[in-house]
Amino acid sequence: MAGEEKARMAGFVSTAGSSVDQSFKGEAIKYLLENPEEQENAGWGEGRRDGGVNLASQHALNLMKTDPAGASTWLNSLPESNERLWAKKNFASNWQNYDPDAVQNWVASQPANERTEIESFLKEN
What we know:
The protein is an all-alpha fold. It is built from seven helices and no strands.
């Protein structure tokens, strides 16, 4: 599968419910974040850039419920972007409700530029 067909399939999988294998869903989201030119073909379309933030954030939160380390690894595998940063902020904000000490350790392990943004976000919320 290639091109537009691959993007359409990634769009479908990235927005599918829990019936889709979570690792497959994560790869679909990652593919579309790595290939912004394919996002319109995937149905994210113009004005839906926040779709990537929402989908990445929700996927990380779903992973966090059973595997926080896996969620962290997945987030760090995303291309550096506004979507990745916002997904990390949302992840940290939600995770701190469950394990504040673990979140602080996780935030400290993030790249300096992202760490500062995440810390500021957590203080504001």
